[in-house]
Amino acid sequence: MLFNYESIDNTGAKKTGSIDAVNSDVAILSLQRRGLTLTSIKEADANGSFFGKNIALFDRISTKDVVILSRQLSTLFEAQISALRIFRLLASETENHVLGSKMQTIADDLQAGSPISDALAKHPKVFSNFYVNMVKAGEESGKLDETFLYLADYLDRSYELSSKVKGALIYPAFIVVTFITVMILMFTMVIPKISGILTESGGEIPVYTQVVLGISNFLLEYGFILLAVALIGGFFLVRFVRTPAGRMIYDQFKLGIPYISTLFKKLYLSRLADNMNTMLISGIPMVRALELTSTVINNQVYQNIISRAVEEVTGGKTLSESLSNNPREIPGIMVQMMKVGEETGEVGSILKTMSRFYTREVTTAVDSLVSLIEPLMIVLLGGGVAVLLASVLIPIYNIASTQ
Q1: Is the pTM of this model over 0.85?
Q2: Class of 63-155 in CATH
Q3: Where are the beta strands (DSSP E) in 34-181?
């Protein structure tokens, strides 16, 4: 929750701002730790209008905002400006007022003596565990400017790749929804009017036409029941997918779809290599890098593989040996490349090469998928409508020709 507050600092000066906290008690405690005496605190937009609250729902911090912020932080740290001044400056200059509020809260925490990584960790919805640990490594090495630059580049690559994959899947989904909508409209609005002509003619109706008319009658009589069952089923399906067991089944299903599975595997391998490379070059130990990668790869199957790798690497095995036990998910070329990197001490460089390779592979696979799906979907949509109309219009034509 976001709370607006008015307070007095140690010098007696009035101070206003906002703070993000779980509840008002946590917000008050956090502000008191900063040496502030509160005069007023209330939930942001608590007394606002209904429309104001609805507009606030659309005010979110996007990946693009975090990328821009990271680049700004890198530039300002490189200019050797103090951390407190940097976050105060960004809080006042950031266009997204929600992000600006969080920057202000982070600046207050820094003023109270908190490290940057700890201050960022209080905002997990904006700064992931991966992001926080990268910043912590940058603090320990004294290279925060390089760390934020690495983070900006990584988030930029990750966002671009994910957007490309989502964009490729949105198009066929749109075509499928359009196809289903057209079919429903045909069965419920067009076919019933034409069926009256066929029944009044008294002529013989072909079997395929009877099937079409039967489907039309079924949808007219039980369509709302079918829709209710679909909505309820979809609701419980979404809830099940959010459970650990459902998530595992869903992730396994994605890796079992012909052709699509190859795209997803390359996406996860690219994410794995990119995450590991970014953390290793920032000085994060191998085991910790694996732990963090397992939380951001966004697939339960690969998460379990990496979790087992953490245990085996901790027990003395090399990363390549551990990953070689999963030939379906981790290809041999990646295992062999990692083995070479371990022998030469260039694991980070090898991972960077593998990340670029699989990123190009994903891009190529997405382009091929889109070029294949577009004509296929158009043919299916046109063919479905043509078959449906032919099954009704041909009998009408036969009746007209016999009269």
Answers
A1: no
A2: mainly alpha
A3: 37-43
